[in-house]
Design brief:
The complex is a heterodimer of chains A (381) and B (134). By secondary structure, chain A is mostly helical. Chain A contains 13 helices and two strands, in the order βααααααβααααααα. Helices cover 54% and strands 2% of the residues of chain A. Chain B is 54% helix and 3% strand. Chain B is built from six helices and two strands. About 8% of the residues of chain B have low confidence. Classes of the chains: A mainly alpha (381), B mainly alpha (134). Chains A and B meet through loops of A and α5 of B.
Amino acid sequence: MKPDASTEKADCLTWSAKVEVWDIAVRLFHWSLVLLVATTAITGFLAAEWWLDYHVWAGYGIALLLMFRLAWGFVGSYYARFASFRFPFRVLLKHMREVVSGKGGQYLGHNPAGALMVFALIFVLLALVLSGLIGLGGQENQGMLAAFADYQSGVLALEIHDILSILLLGMIVAHLAGVVLESVLSKENLVRAMVTGRKKAEPGRLPHSFGKKRVVWRAPVVVALIGLIVGPAYWQLTNMPASGFVAMKNNPTWASECGDCHYAYHPSLLPRSSWDTVMSGLSDHFGEDASLDKDTQSEISAFLSKYSSEHWDSEAANELQKVDLKKPLEITASPYWKQRHEEIEPLVFKRKSIGSKGNCIACHTDAKSGHFADEKISIPE
Amino acid sequence: MKKQNIIFAALFASLVMPLSMAMAASSPILDEIKKQAGGVEFSAERGKTLFSQKFTGGKPDTPSCTSCHGKSPQNTGKTRAGKAIAPMAVSKSPERYTDAKKVAKWFRRNCRTVLGRECTPTEKGDFLTYMMSQ
């Protein structure tokens, strides 16, 4: 064993020897987090709706990493433990004054400002995961909380999610600035230290007993425990029926009669009053005679009323029931429909593969179920 | 496949095939319309004209059958809402014109939409004769 590789005994170090500070678990955690946060940022801020799946998977990944880091903060190696970087407020103030006067590098592990950032990042990321899950469950009727979150909570949660995501961007900038500043002040490349795990031990910042042996067996145990808890919980929760959806028995008459000329609009897409007007005016149905015999008409009418938007708590039902008052029968005239489709060029709707704005199912591949999930959108050429 | 099954299939085909061919030649739906029309001889030529002609009495978006069904009965059409319509020609859509209720429903709706009135039995007969010849 080389003398500078020994981390258990401080006294056999020569000054300026490199010692291991960030254990392998901390480093893997850090860089995986960087990758996943970047994925969520790109899919969340820049990508189109149908990238939602990737955003969500990266979010779940972040949740798992955070769970690991929280556990590691108690059972990990010395510098990974929260106890090793929980500084009193006055120490933080003292540190800030020293930084302003150009002094740095006294801390081998996190300095007080860096430590504060670690806690803040963990807190904000946890809040992002939670608000994302509530939003996903409430607005999209998907994910682990689909059975519990209602639409309005989902909308609110996503507003908070948006604000937190901007805050996180700011924090990342501050974190990077802090790393650069401390690197300059301590004359040590801290980015490289997070890769190699090693930092220079100098007079005044002696390495603490590191606990390398613990890392080797504790990390896999923590990972296995998280897997044992999260795996079944995920399976159990995602298999519960979404709260916004009712079990609708398909009506073959509705499916065939309405489906003859157009995508059979899901009953949840219009309020009862609109369906009643549609069904009583079939002899002039959007410029065509679509009259039905009496029995068929009343059967379809009853079906549509029974499952009209008032009975659902999905995104489509909640938003599309706010119809355009002058055109209460036109789903594509409602304010929400227009707002969500405003970025789509009119020529896209004219494509052979689409035909018209009313052909929902051309792009919303799950239109039959009434879900209209973001990731099920696929605009054909 | 067992030998018995092959014999059975051959027997079945020899019985059913001439029967179905005979049915195609004389459709009960067409016979009924013929009765209503008072025995007039239907003409595929007149049916073709009816199919491609432009009318002014109906709804403005659909002046002709071809507005949605396309210029040729052999081709797939498209509703105004963007959904594909199977070709009208019997050779392309053999299941067409076999359900009397369906035929009545679509003549009622589409004649009103395109012509602005119900079609006469002769018009219906010409139309069906044309589509069955296609």
